[in-house]
Amino acid sequence: MTNVLIIDSAATGEASVSRKLTREAAERLQRRDPSVRIVLRDIGAAPVPHLNERTVPAIRAGVVESEEAGQALALSDELVAELREADLIILGAPMYNFGMPSTLKAWFDHVLRARVTFRYTEAGPEGLLKGKKAIVVETRAGLYSEGPGAAMDSQEPHIRTLLGFMGIDDVAFVRAEKLAFGPEVAEAAVAAAAETIDEELPLAA
Questions:
Q1: Is the dihedral of CA 14, 143, 5, 111 positive or negative?
Q2: Is 203 a residue whose pLDDT tops 80?
Q3: Is 202 helix (H, G, I), strand (E, B) or coil?
């Protein structure tokens, strides 16, 4: 059985294009193999708290000095467990102001943990979550994969770096771009993205 973790991070609820695409991906997986186990973590609807001076020591070193710190560490452990168990990770990542949503960055802040999901060695940092595949569904109002807008893309390089730091380097970036260029352009972009996602999904779970 394949374990799939889907992370939705859009703040726009049912209007979210990335959420629509991740939902379609889940439906395709279930049609191919009804036994597939899918865990959905919607951090757009239920955001992961941002780190603060009370929770940073808990996440970084397991130091719990308050109830808030204990809750942060428990949540981090839960998120890491979901990530460890997943064979396939699907990230719904809309572009907000040229980068990922702050909700997704907060999720990364809770799962990037030294000696847990990565470690430092004499040869440099080593990711501890190897052997996983990730599909990152990027939705963008403009065109940022090429042309003048590419220089403003702080979304894809950042996500690639954070996944890679944990050892997840088998990553497919699926872009639905030019969503603000009119209904016909947007519809074509979403359809093309859905087709690409389908190609990246395993034939059988």
A1: negative
A2: no
A3: coil
Residue 1 has pLDDT above 60, yes or no: no
| CB-CB neighbours of 147 under 10 Å | 9
Only one residue has tokens 């569904």, namely 137
The pTM is what? 0.95
What does the pLDDT average to over 88-100?
98
Tokens standing for residue 60: 């970084």
Alpha carbon distance 17, 22 (integer Å): 9
d(CA 116, CA 101): 24
Domains defined for the chain, CATH in brackets: 3-53+79-200 (3.40.50.360)
Alpha helices in 119-182 (DSSP H): 156-165
DSSP symbol at 114 = B
- Residue pair 127/117 in contact (Cβ under 8 Å)? The answer is yes
Q: Tell me the average pLDDT of the chain.
A: 96
Give the integer Cα–Cα distance in Å for 58 and 69.
Answer: 6
What pLDDT score does 110 carry?
98
